[in-house]
Write a structure and sequence with these properties.
The protein is an alpha/beta fold. The structure holds thiamine diphosphate (TPP) and magnesium ion. This is Pyruvate dehydrogenase E1 component alpha subunit. Its cofactor is thiamine diphosphate.
């Protein structure tokens, strides 16, 4: 799939936005400013930006607990996401969802499910709805190498296959489920091989190469959109931070982190852009600085926003139908 030169600069900006937004969250969390718990996807930007590149309006996308960056791409503005993480009333979910449950269903951003594996069955409901309406949209579910070992995931894959649903299962293999290496939780080299058991295609891709991610999602999404049925994509990547902020990360060797730092997805795209002569180092610095300005403004917006009023404690708990009946 050919990616236009100007798109490479846009992807570079998007990847910096994700990384710097998350780095800001890391700093704010360390200062005790953010309530709740956060899991950061620093190092995994290529799979987020590359997947976003091929998502179309109307698609349903279930993210995991580590994809603030994809939520930004799916239409939650930096201001709304930052305010949500501060627990403020101006947040994407009025400050009541926080990191794990920030979502924007009208933009197809379904958010995350706290129970690993459950979302991979639920996603088939969205896929069924797309198939039933014949709207050309697909349902995408994103989950980790750890979650991939849950039984529910296999039920979800089997059902998607049997019903020939437009479901794309994206496994983000970042090497660990909390402190357990994915090498210890599975005996196969490529988690995508599991697709074969359900009669659907599956491929494993270098998830730190944004162009490889675009190529893979481009082909897979097109096939699924056109009625080809479900598939599995595995993106091999690495999280630079711990599982959660505050994790001392005593379980992984330094050499492993050093090796993955050499495969930093942003550096790799930067090298491609510079080698192609698409932008100067000064221009790329400008692009990066633009993202910092966006994040500064988002932080200011969140800080200056009010907390939800106490009278709102019981609102938004249930979804209300028109006429007041509970769904
Ligand atoms: C059913 C279930 N078991 C355990 C947990 C606790 N838990 C939260 S995140 C996590 C690790 C997930 O690892 P992975 O799926 O690889 O995603 P990553 O955190 O690496 O992005 C675990 C075990 C949970 N949320 N749900
Ligand atoms: Mg993992």
């Amino acid at each position: 799939m050919k990616v236009a030169n100007e798109d490479l600069i846009k992807l570079y900006g998007e990847m910096w936005l994700i990384r710097l937004f998350e780095k800001r969250l890391s700093d704010l969390f360390a200062k005790g400013v953010l309530p709740g718990f956060i899991h950061l996807g620093i190092g995994q930007e290529a799979f987020m930006a590359g997947t976003h590149y091929n998502i179309k309006s109307g698609d349903s996308v279930g993210t995991s607990h580590r994809e603030h960056g994809l939520l930004l791409g799916l239409g939650i503005s930096p201001n709304a996401l930052m305010a949500e993480l501060y627990g403020k009333a101006t947040g994407s979910n009025k400050g009541k969802g926080g990191s794990m449950h920030a979502c924007s269903p009208k933009n197809g951003a379904l958010g995350c499910n706290g129970i690993l594996g459950d979302a991979q069955t639920i996603i088939n409901g969205y896929a069924f709805s797309h198939k039933f309406r014949n709207d050309g949209n697909i349902a995408i579910t994103i989950f980790g190498d750890g979650a991939a070992n849950r039984g529910d995931v296999h039920e979800g894959m089997n059902l998607a296959s049997v019903l020939n649903l437009p479901t794309v299962f994206i496994i983000v293999n970042n090497g660990y489920g909390i402190s357990m290496s994915s090498k210890d939780s599975s005996n196969i080299q490529d988690l995508s091989a599991r697709a074969q058991s359900y009669g659907m295609p599956g491929i494993s891709v270098d998830g730190n190469d944004v162009l490889a991610v675009i190529e893979a999602t481009g082909e897979a999404f097109k096939r699924t959109r056109e009625g080809g049925g479900p598939c599995v994509l595995e993106f091999k990547t690495y999280r630079h931070q711990g599982h959660f902020e505050g994790d001392p990360v005593t379980y992984r060797p330094k050499e492993e982190l050093d090796m993955w730092m050499k495969k930093d997805p942003i550096k790799r795209l930067e090298t491609i852009i510079l080698e192609k002569g698409l932008a100067s180092p000064e221009k790329l610095l400008e692009v990066k600085n633009e993202q910092i300005a966006i994040i500064d403004a988002a932080q200011k917006f969140a800080e200056e926003s009010p907390y939800p009023d106490i009278s709102e404690v019981y609102t938004d708990v249930y979804f209300e139908l028109e006429g007041g009946a509970l769904k």
